[in-house]
Amino acid sequence: MNTPPQDERGASIRLEEVVFGYAGAASMRFDLSVEPSSIVAIMGASGSGKTTLLNLIAGFEAPSAGRVLIGEQDMAGVPPARRPVSMVFQENNLFAHLDVAANVGLGRSPALRLTSADQEEVSQALAQVGLAGKEKRLPGELSGGERQRVALARVLLRRRPILLLDEPFASLGPGLRREMLALISDLHSRLGMTTLMVTHHPEDAREIADTVAFLASGRIEAVGAAAHFFSEAGPAGFRHYIEG
User: SS3 for 98?
Assistant: First the structure.
């Protein structure tokens, strides 16, 4: 089996005639091509398949047909842990009994066998997301925005070329959400990770995305430049979605 690319620069993503269906539900079908180092906003109504799309790329779900390619390599049979992907969820997936430094260190070693160099990188990653000096705090002692910053610091330590964001800032207020979007934009400008972000907020997509993929009924109905999507000439279905 080929080893997936593991550097932190962006990688291309292609879904070719990918079919997936949950028991008792209609099948979803995805065709999508994502350029390396782009930022794509994944938008659509609840139940349209946005999270499923990310899970297929990450390997948490397996298609019944079609191919998922990352950096031109077919991901069939490659488990999530070996894919060149990091994923941040709305609930941030932190361990309540581990301090901030340990939660970040899991990105380097699931067993937390960290060298002194690893520990230094943990501190550097926390500094990059604005959490320097909070290494010994527990997740319960942090705000919601700070917990998401810990999750992003863990992403930095993983050094994967693709970042998937499944509505990670949905529970944050407008001010904190803008702050986190600015952080994502800054990390992207420095690291160039290909970024797919599921969001229900048009203003978030306008803020940082260069591309929008609009999903409806388990299909990718339209893909294109964000500037076009948010113009009066944008796709009719998308216009109806954001104005409805």
Answer: coil
Chain-centre distance for alpha carbon 76: 20
Q: Which residues, other chains included, contact 199 with Cβ-Cβ below 8 Å and sequence gap of 6+?
A: 41, 42, 43, 167, 170, 205
Q: Which residues, in sequence order, are CB contacts of 29 under 8 Å at separation 6+?
A: 17, 18, 19, 66, 218, 219
Number of domains in the chain: 2
Has residue 5 been placed in a domain?
Answer: no
Cβ neighbours of residue 86 under 8 Å, at least 6 residues apart? Answer: 107, 154, 155, 158, 160, 162, 163, 164
pLDDT tens for residues 130-145? 899 999 999 999 988 8
Domain region containing 172: 10-84+162-244
The sign of the dihedral angle between the CA atoms of 166, 168, 170, 171 is: positive
pTM: 0.89
Residues 174 and 79 both lie in one domain: yes
